[in-house]
């Protein structure tokens, strides 16, 4: 049957999920099957939206189709490009903290991180008074003053990120056109094209599952448990992004306290992830905090409490039934390289002794009603800005 490549791939991906090495509980497995469903939807959507001649920006991850330790503060957009063609990206800058562009060569796989061809943020753009901008990519030489960036041979993806430091900020608009096909229609699909798209969706699904099961092994699980690294450039990431990573394992009667300076980065975000390498539920739970959402103490530090049980403080980050998981800090839009003193310090303490390790505990406390207001603000922010 025409759909055999996809259905065969779904069965293979399901086996990969069911036999993932980190599965210990029924919740782990159920979460994996939900992750698989999101991957199927995303890969089928991408396969049918893909066009070599008429590219469009697609979002490959979001609240219901997560992958790649998606940042709850970020909207991700991607489009296919080829080095021998010219593209124009037009848009209107929103009010988000950061808007960044990155050209990659190749794809993320379970054996490879794609090459970073170029990366820059909106500070390199000429943005008009009404917020509009234009930037071009192609085989010509890079000329930032003219808003033109070279596509090296092998360039395959243009990734754009909009990063929210405040979830009430407004997203912008974004469009990509290939100059030689602008104003012309795409060719209608034929039988062979449909076959190729089912095959493409199937390959992408299996690769997606294999790839993101591998990343925790590469970058997190080899580190000592319940520790975090000093800030470092994010592997395969943006030139202006640094990260501090780790993984945790906590009993119900334990908590982790992470202390990090407020610092001077326009964006600082922290999140938890599962071993499926996806964010935990960030809509109905506070599983992430950024430098706008987090409460800073009078000494210029943010103290985050990671635990399953509610400690009654504003900076509680919920593990939501995950006694093991990933820890990730990100700094973006930096003009300098952060050092170890800019990074977090992790300490595991008895849950009942949390107050003894928070020097400003009285100002950190939060009522049940105030907590509900925080969650309501998260729900509103996601509904207002996230694609479905």
Give an overview of the whole structure.
The protein is α+β, with helices and mostly antiparallel strands and 388 residues long. It is 23% helix and 28% strand. The protein is built from 5 helices and 18 strands. It has helices at 4-18, 26-49, 191-219, 361-364, 368-385, and strands at residues 74-80, 87-92, 98-105, 115-121, 132-138, 148-150, 155-163, 173-178, 227-228, 232-233, 242-249, 254-261, 267-273, 288-290, 301-307, 316-318, 324-332, 345-350. The strands form 4 sheets. Strands 9, 10, 11, 13, 14 and 17 form a 6-stranded antiparallel sheet that branches. The protein has a 4-stranded antiparallel sheet with strand order 1-7-3-4, with no helix packed on it. The protein is globular.
Helices and strands, in order, run as HHEEEEEEEEHEEEEEEEEEEHH
Fraction of residues in helix:
10-25%
* Inertia-based shape: globular
Total strand count, please?
18
The profile of the biggest β sheet is: 6 strands, antiparallel
Q: What is the rounded distance between the termini?
A: 31 Å
Structural class: alpha+beta
Tell me the strand percentage band.
25-35%
Low-confidence stretches: none
Outline the fold blueprint.
Blueprint lengths: L3 H15 L7 H24 L24 E7 L6 E6 L5 E8 L9 E7 L10 E7 L9 E3 L4 E9 L9 E6 L12 H29 L7 E2 L3 E2 L8 E8 L4 E8 L5 E7 L14 E3 L10 E7 L8 E3 L5 E9 L12 E6 L10 H4 L3 H18 L3
Parallel strand pairs: 5-6, 15-16
Antiparallel strand pairs: 1-7, 2-5, 2-8, 3-4, 3-7, 9-11, 10-11, 11-17, 12-15, 12-18, 13-14, 13-17
Helix pairs in contact: 1-2, 1-3, 2-3
